[in-house]
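Let us practice reading a record.
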Amino acid sequence: MAVRILAAVVAAACLTGVARAGDPTPAIPIGKSSFEFIDHQGDPTRPITAWTFIPEGCLPDCQVQYVFHGVERNGEEYLGNWIASAKARRFMVVVPEFSRRHYPKDTDYSLGRVLNEPDPRKWAFAVPDHLFDHLKARLKLRADTYRAFGHSAGGQFVHRWLLFRPDNRASIIIAANPGWYTMPEWDPEKSTLSFPFSLIGSPIGQKRLQEALSRRFTLMLGERDTDPKHKTLNRSPGALAQGAHRLARGQTFFAAARDAAGRLGSVFAWDLVVVPNAAHDNAAMARAAVDHMNYVSSR
């Protein structure tokens, strides 16, 4: 009897994320939690807090949903906007938080460290796949792909991540309400704007752009995200050349991507979704993204 009781206690500890004696990697708890991720495949000097929510009975068959936060680096708040949907539709949410301590500048996060890091393994854009490897090993996940959503600065992150790492393992990427874009233009005769406002002068060539244009990607814009004086809106000349506000800039970016696909003879697999009555609101865009991702996953 004592042996059976001990076994039950150990099993319960594993399910709730309590480490067993000598276990260096305790299970991630069911429900809401967080842990520090050290990227040993990339840059171990820049740890990330990974906020997670795992519904009861989800493992090991959970679908993994990445959510990328905005400029305030508020991963826990972003996680909160996804918990109800994760419970109802039974998927795991992971929010990698790129802190100001380890990713101090906006270029370190929304531009992926491309400007100041020559080694692609150390880019912020390498983190999603590296973290996914860690999650698969730690949770014995059966999934081989994940879904990704980024809002505002997170939307900037994910659209550039797709351009620079089109070989990522996402099954769908949604960029919601980015403030400005790296335009899919590689020809210096077509634009006077260089990277980061275009691909001119960046490590991206035409082949990688073609691959990115053929991936499943959705640009999701708020119908009322039209404030030209929003407090976090980039109003530099390069950004203003894309439009006066986020809705206009998104429409400019999508049209340029469709044009680029035509010039390159590439498959164009992107979608544009305008969410009715939504402004610069992560919660509203998250709800729309959940519905959209369930639709595309079944087609």
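A brief commentary: The mean pLDDT is 91.
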